[in-house]
Amino acid sequence: MTTSPSSPIDVKHLIGGDWKSASDGATFETRDPHDGALLGTVARGTADDGAEAITAARRTFDEGGWSQMAPKERAKILHQVADAVDAHREELAMLETRDGGKTITQSLHAEIPRVAHNLRFFADYVSMAANEAYPDGDLLSYVLYPPAGVVSAISPWNAPLMLATWKIAPALAFGNTVVLKPAPQTPLTANRFAEIALEAGLPPGVLNVVHGFGGEAVAGPLTSDPRVDRITFTGSSATGVKILQAAAANHTPVSAEMGGKSANIVFDDADLDVAVPMSLRAIFGGNGQVCLSGTRLLVQNSIREEFLERFTEEAPKLVVGDPKEASSFMGPLIEQRHLEKVHGYVELAQEEGGKVITGGERLTGDAYANGFYYPPTIITGLDNTSRTAREEIFGPVETVIGFDTEEEALRITNDSPYGLAGILFTENLNRAHRLAARWKAGTVWINTFFERDLRLPFGGEGISGLGREGGQYSREFFTEPRAVTIRLRK
Ligand code: NAD
């Protein structure tokens, strides 16, 4: 396997097909959260850089080479890009693992394959989706889906290229041009992907990439420039509000996928051989740095002791270590600041009266010496009113809450400002349907977790999201659906 970059990568913006430094020459560093190694020196984008990228995307869109191209031709190019991603899978996976600390198993077998799948799915969707037509006597009405225009795509660090392409793939497939701003913690795969896409035949200016930070810097124009037609954002709920405020000035539509505090409910009729390992994955997979994580574990009191015994016995056995090793189940947290935030919540949990029954201290020792390692941590003794149970920690910290009845479980579950996902373990089919219908969440998984069919709507309720993407929902967002009515003559 291609290993890591041997010397730091010079990460520039990609604007109109050219690689460019920041307008003022400023840079920032991206480092490996496992050992602090310098991986790249990155263009620290200015507002001018953001505006220049929008100009390039606008010009490319208006020239029509991409936006007016027959959809099947665009699909062909996106398939070529997907094939090229497959061909570079090991390289991209190792870059992702080094830049963000994601385990190599996950990068190699889940996230980079999903990048290629995102591209293929939307390439095919464009040619296979049905269009509405309504013949009505001498009136014939139908719907056109022209591309919206220039799309700003702003993505987070926790699943960098997978989430970036979850935005780029539909935007491009429907004929838009894109300015992507990856998270500053993980800029490497976005650039390598853009390079690979150009080589595979994506025309210059169709995908532009700028690096840096939010607010007044490079991301400013991406959310406030009137030449932007759509903003697709994934990140925290707090940033989402700022983006919505900036976008409102120009009436720019925003699709926002934001934070979560999802419940994972285990009933006493659940198959514990399924529920225990799935629940472990649902909170500790990806270090709990997953928006969809089942961070509130609701266990029916009649099985609480048995379930917790098994859950608590298994959690410390999950291998935490160098994410480049195939044996590691968890890697380091993304950065020092985030480690402090996560540990701060564990301290808060204790102040609130909670008891840490496993984990709860930063991992130290040779193997963890220069990395931001935190173990699987389980907290009991808190109820759903605690801040620990209400705020997004975004780390490997599970809060366990007991309940007696189905109604009580649902009340606790829905008593949250978030509403992203839900996980349910039960063998009672009627109960599963009853709860799914009343669950405040964009996605509900029953006896499983993290399965994604890209035809389904994806998004959240409450402060977890605004709008949905996926299949037809992506088409509605990334196009301007237009009703056409013709009066036919005899
Ligand atoms: P973040 O909100 O700090 O940053 C996300 C992106 O927004 C980054 O690229 C950042 O540079 C940019 N940004 C920051 N301020 C901005 C501003 N004012 N204007 C424009 N852009 C700005 O989030 P993060 O820490 O990178 O990611 C973790 C968060 O993302 C968690 O809350 C997690 O739940 C959420 N998330 C949600 C989903 C989902 O699908 N709902 C998926 C993954 C992550």
Blueprint (SSEs and pairs):
Layout: E1 9-11, E2 13-15, E3 18-20, E4 27-31, E5 38-43, H1 47-63, H2 71-87, H3 89-100, H4 104-128, E6 133-136, E7 139-144, E8 150-154, H5 160-173, E9 177-181, H6 188-199, E10 207-209, H7 219-224, E11 230-234, H8 237-248, E12 254-257, E13 263-266, H9 272-284, E14 296-300, H10 301-314, H11 336-351, E15 355-358, E16 377-380, H12 387-390, E17 397-403, H13 406-414, E18 418-419, E19 421-425, H14 429-438, E20 443-446, E21 461-462, E22 465-466, H15 471-478, E23 482-487
Parallel strand pairs: 1-5, 8-9, 8-11, 9-10, 11-12, 13-14, 13-19, 14-17, 16-17, 19-20
Antiparallel strand pairs: 2-3, 4-5, 6-7, 7-23, 12-22, 15-16, 18-21
Nicotinamide-adenine-dinucleotide binds next to helix 7 and helix 8.
Report what the structure shows.
The protein is of the alpha/beta class. The protein folds into 2 domains: 9-258 and 464-483, 3-Layer(aba) Sandwich (Aldehyde Dehydrogenase, Chain A, domain 1), CATH 3.40.605.10; 263-453, 3-Layer(aba) Sandwich (Aldehyde Dehydrogenase, Chain A, domain 2). Helices cover 39% and strands 20% of the residues. β19 (421-425), α14 (429-438) and β20 (443-446) form a beta-alpha-beta unit. The radius of gyration is 23 Å and the shape is globular. The relative contact order is 0.13. Bound molecules: nicotinamide-adenine-dinucleotide.
